TrEMBL record:
Protein name: Protein dachsous
Organism: Caerostris extrusa (Bark spider)
Matching PROSITE patterns: CADHERIN_1, CADHERIN_2
GO biological process, one term: anatomical structure morphogenesis
Signal peptide positions on this chain: none
Superkingdom field: Eukaryota
Residues of the Cadherin domain: 28-133, 134-241, 265-323, 427-529, 530-583
Higher taxonomy: Eukaryota, Metazoa, Ecdysozoa, Arthropoda, Chelicerata
GO terms of molecular function: calcium ion binding
Keyword Repeat in annotation: yes
Keywords tagged on the record: Calcium, Cell adhesion, Glycoprotein, Membrane, Repeat, Transmembrane, Transmembrane helix
GO CC terms: plasma membrane
Annotated compartments: Membrane
Length: 607
């Protein structure tokens, strides 16, 4: 432990009337005080206690021991010197001070005397405890109409340290989705700073951090807690009408027949948006109603909105129209231009005062066809809209006024004829392929092209139209399975195939796909020397490591398969050596007495 963890060495002596006889007790002050910092390790000296015995010899030698107050057995004392030291780690949070009773006994064998001193040891706090929140996480709710400045929650965190190390301050480290709260740094009181609106945000999440106030800011400890705040909906929005203020209704409508769906919207949640109609209508009493409709929600308290609705009662058309046919059928090409006439629909109504209106009452297509309204004298026409749909139509047409009591229906069937207007399209199957050389004939890939047309216009066949060097590749006409014969990378390293997909339309349309086939190397070639035999002469006094000759070999494979290593394989190893990477042959011996002709007849290729 460093010196700053230890209090100053303290020694006390007491000189009073002390005799040299063995009847004299050791003399020391009545109490001592030491300080030690929290966290000091085992074996650290706290202080020294000294008692003086004025006797001489063995009678004056003093022995020390702790006889009381050693809470948690933290301290011990050297019997012969009085040095007080730690035998366990000191923790301020366990005890902030200790009151030891230390006994000093002289060494008299006949009549030993002793004294007891009180030793106070104060533990100096170290900031080793972070603040702790009582609850984590925290969840609570507040009404959306809570006034600004209202205290909504008290955050509380405790720190077991003392002094500034145990003083806690609070701050908001995160707010989402908006900053509408603030917190008192000292008390942890959370208050509302902005008005809440349930219709904008139903909940908030904040992160509150509690930090102690250690003097050294780098040693300050902190803890955070996540808090979710639920906003409670209050009935603070009145319904808003979305329906028109004028309608027409037939005089013969039965009681309780729905003549208008009154729509009002309420931004509040749950039951606050339920609406009711205040009054009903009766044509027999008056032909024009001016109704004050009230829409009220079910909130507490309820809120309401009002709308003036004008209801005009119309006479009844009591003769239904009739169609000449029960079913109308026609065919139309999907490529028909806008405005192309498709068919005529006829309907008659014997009520001359009432015009015949034809309109669609049921539709089963993705795109609308155009129709022409008729007064009954001319046939009703249907023409192609901005784009013909791609489905068969089974529309219904109704004759009569839009809210007629007795309408009549007829079916209109329009079959769309497909046109070959889409070429086959390759999807994700067009990409670069990697095929090992020397592979047996096999399927290496399947190309897929689709055609958005139907029937023969969507039937696709496949062919290779370009790049098939040496006819190494073939493709199945119908399945698109691409096969290859054995490939030789040393002849062709890469193929660029062009594959076409044709439909069976008239005229046929085609799509193209570019497929790159990269041939992967295999180690299927041996290295070859540039010459079948090499010869050289060398002087007998040639220096060691003299280059005699250089041999070269080539390997047509690729990458590591083409890397060559050279070695000597005969009895000349005692005289010569070869560079395994370059192929240089070097003299090995330091002296040669006779001129030798060496034939290096065995080089090895090592992969």
């Amino acid at each position: 432990m460093t010196k700053e963890h230890l209090s100053a060495r303290t020694s006390s002596s007491c000189r009073s009337r002390c005799w040299t006889s063995t009847t004299t007790s050791p003399c020391s002050p009545s109490s001592l005080s030491f300080k030690v910092k929290e966290g000091v390790g085992v074996g650290q000296e706290v202080g020294v206690i000294q008692a003086i015995d004025e006797d001489g010899g063995e009678n004056g030698r003093v022995m020390y021991s702790i006889v009381g107050g050693n809470l948690y057995d933290i301290f011990d004392i050297v019997r012969s010197t009085g040095s007080l030291y730690t035998i366990a780690e000191v923790d301020f949070e366990k005890a902030s001070e200790y009151h030891l009773q230390v006994k000093a006994v002289d060494n008299s064998a006949v009549n030993p005397h002793s004294s007891v001193i009180s030793v106070k040891i104060e533990v100096e706090d170290v900031n080793d405890c972070a603040p702790v929140f009582k609850n984590d996480p925290i969840l609570f709710s507040i009404p959306e109409n809570t006034p600004q400045g209202t205290l909504v929650w008290n955050f509380s965190a405790t720190d077991l340290d003392s002094g500034v190390n145990g003083q806690v301050i609070y701050f908001l480290s995160q707010q989402s989705p908006a900053s509408v709260f603030q917190i008192d740094r000292k008390t942890g009181a959370l208050t509302l700073t902005e008005a809440l609106d349930y219709e904008h945000f139903q909940e908030y999440t904040i992160v509150v951090t509690a930090s102690d106030q250690a003097r050294d800011t780098k040693q300050r400890l902190s803890t955070s807690v996540t808090c979710k705040i639920i906003v409670e909906d209050k009935n603070d929005n009145a319904p808003v009408f979305k329906t028109r203020s004028k309608i027409n209704v037939l005089e013969s409508e039965p009681v309780s027949y729905p003549v208008l769906h009154v729509i009002a919207l309420d931004e509040d949640s749950r039951d606050n948006g339920l609406l009711s109609v205040a009054k009903s209508m009766d044509r027999e009493e008056v032909s024009h109603y001016e109704l004050n409709i009230t829409a009220s929600d079910h909130g507490r308290p309820p809120r309401a909105s009002h709308q003036i609705l004008h209801v005009y009662v119309e006479d009844v058309n009591d003769n239904p129209p009739r169609f000449k046919q029960r079913l109308y059928q026609a065919n139309v090409s999907e490529a028909a231009p806008k405005g192309t006439f498709v068919l005529k629909v006829d309907a008659l109504d014997i009520d001359l005062e009432w015009p015949v209106v034809l309109f669609y009452s049921e539709r089963r297509c993705r795109e609308p066809l155009h129709h022409q309204r008729s007064d009954g004298r001319d046939p009703h026409g249907i023409s192609v809209g901005s784009r013909a749909p791609s489905l068969v139509l089974r529309d219904r047409v109704r004759a009569g006024r839009s809210l007629s009591l007795s309408p009549r229906h007829t079916a209109v069937r329009i079959d769309l004829l497909d046109v070959n207007d889409h070429a086959p399209e390759f999807g994700d199957s067009c990409y670069t392929l990697r095929v090992p050389e020397n592979s047996d004939l096999s399927v290496i890939h399947t190309l897929v092209a689709t055609d958005r047309d139907t029937n023969a216009n969507a039937e696709v066949t496949y062919t290779i139209t370009d790049g098939n060097t040496g006819n190494k590749f073939s493709i199945d006409l119908h399945t698109g399975q691409l096969s290859s014969r054995p490939l030789d990378r040393e002849q062709v390293q890469q193929y660029r195939l062009v594959v076409s997909a044709h439909d069976q339309g008239e005229p046929p349309l085609a799509g193209m796909c570019n497929v790159t086939v990269i041939v992967l190397d295999q180690n299927d070639n041996d290295p070859q020397f540039e010459h079948s035999e090499y010869s050289a002469t060398i002087a007998e006094d040639a220096a060691s490591n003299t280059t005699v000759l250089v041999v070269r070999a080539q390997d047509p494979d690729d990458g590591v398969n083409s890397q060559i290593t050279y070695s000597l394989g005969n009895e000349t190893r005692a005289l010569f050596r070869i560079d395994s990477a370059t192929g240089s042959s070097l003299q090995q011996a330091t002296e040669i007495k006779e001129v030798h002709q060496a034939i290096i007849d065995d080089f090895h290729h090592i992969l």
